Amino acid sequence: MKNSNRLIYTDNLEESLEEVASLFDRHTKFYTEIIEKDKKVIKTFNKDFKIEHAKEVISKAHLKHSALNAFLIAAPSYGIEAQNALLKILEEPPNNVCFIMFAKSPNHVLATIKSRLIKEDRRQKIPLKPLNLDLSRLDLKDIYAFLKELDKENFDSRENQREKIESLLESINRCQICLNEQELQAFDLAIKANSSYYKLSYNLLPLLLSLLSKKRSP
């Protein structure tokens, strides 16, 4: 683990962070913060990781490190702008720096982030419900029927809709369909649109059409 950038899914952020920290001689922990009225800074796991936190990580990572320093980043969720800011440094870490991120769900992390990190799942296993769609035999008729049925479903939260997008990505991995950077970014945009209350079928349609086009390409 010591020289690998990783993304660890865990039910207990603090417990997993402390366990991983014990494996490194040098480490830097990044929590999000709450500043109380008396200006006392309280470390917490109950606040989103935002762009200001990402800038702090990047700034400290670019300092000179004489030995391996593990940057441990934990938050209940990560802002899209903050994640995009981390993309370059995760792909090309400075000398003697490795990054380990902790998240409670794959849904909380962009596909472009996940593609840059080795993933380790320490959560109690609750599998995503598979989509009622056979990607190996995908055609326009299947896409139309699937989205029509999807529009009839009564989703009780945006998180449930997001899980549908994540299920599609998981199905793609199971079918061993390779996605390029642009295609991964399309999933990120779909997740962002989902959080902005776009209709789920509208988000999935371009993804499915892209898969169909990929399937038909020689």
TrEMBL record:
The protein's name: DNA polymerase III, delta subunit
UniProt superkingdom: Bacteria
Species per Swiss-Prot/TrEMBL record: Helicobacter pylori SouthAfrica20
InterPro entries: P-loop_NTPase (IPR027417)
